[in-house]
Amino acid sequence: MKKFLMALMTALTMTGALAQPGAASPDTAVKQAVETVVKAAKADPASRAGDVLATVKVVERDFLPYTDFRRTTRLAVGAAWNKATPAQQQQLFEQFQTVLVHTYALQLTQLRGQTLTFHFSPATLSANGTDAVVNTRVSGSGDDLEVGYRLGRTSDGWKIYDIDMMGAWLIQIYRQQFADQIARNGIDGLIKYLAAHNARFGK
After folding, report:
1. Integer distance in angstroms from the first to the last C-alpha of the chain?
2. Residue 105 CB: number of other CB atoms within 10 A?
3. Taking the CA atoms of the chain, what radius of gyration do you get in angstroms?
4. Residue 72 exposed, middle or buried by CB count within 10 Å (0-12, 13-18, 19+)
5. With 0-12 CB in 10 A as exposed, 13-18 as middle and 19+ as buried, what is 13?
6. Ramachandran bin of 141, using left for φ above 0, alpha for ψ from -120 to 50, beta for the remaining angles
């Protein structure tokens, strides 16, 4: 898990052209998301110094607009999502999004100062054109890492909702953990589990 998360966050150090959320292509959406958050993290003195909580604020402000983590949450929770009340769904989304933000922020602080090269392959679209995968390769520190991004087309443009590292999609990793928690303690138990995890970060 640690190796996966480190590689996942290494992908967030790409450079490219800045733009606003709502990219016309999935490739551009990934470039926009990563460049925006990396530039913001470098510009923030506390984040640049390795302050995780400061980096959390940067990720919340500058990376979240390019994501659809509500969809990520729904897919990770699986069939139990439809059994949850609207209030429970909202709590699941908020808590899980916070987990993801903390993960991104923590790894960004560990990777600050590194020089990496990012390579893209053309996006692969689904048959109906509403889903896409952007495969990338990150070169740096003597290693090459393969990272894939899954995006969905929304009314606001392409949004990132899943990340793959060497065949391990983020949603797949969490789906089993969530299923185990729900089986033992129900939806409310999963909410408490996520909240307890977030409490360790002071949020």
Report:
1. 22
2. 25
3. 17
4. buried
5. buried
6. left
Q: Which residues contact 90 (CB under 8 A, 6 or more apart)?
A: none
**Secondary structure E strands in 40-181:** 117-120, 124-125, 131-140, 143-154, 157-165, 168-169
Coil, strand, or helix at residue 119?
Answer: strand
- For residue 109, give the nearest of 201, 171, 197, 199 by alpha carbon: 201
Q: Helix, strand, coil % (nearest 5) of the chain?
A: 60, 20, 20
Distance between CA atoms of residues 144 and 141, nearest Å? 8
- DSSP secondary structure of 161-172: EEEEETTEEHHH
Rounded distance between C-alpha atoms, residue 148 and residue 152, angstroms: 13
Burial class for 49, CB neighbours closer than 10 Å (0-12, 13-18, 19+): exposed
Q: For residue range 189-199, what is the model confidence (pLDDT) as tens digits? A: 999 999 999 99
Q: What is the pLDDT of residue 203?
A: 58
Q: What pLDDT, on a 0 to 100 scale, did the predictor assign at position 67?
A: 95
193/112: higher pLDDT? 193
**Cβ-contact 138, 11 below 8 angstroms:** yes
How many helices (H) does the chain have, and how many strands (E)? 7, 6
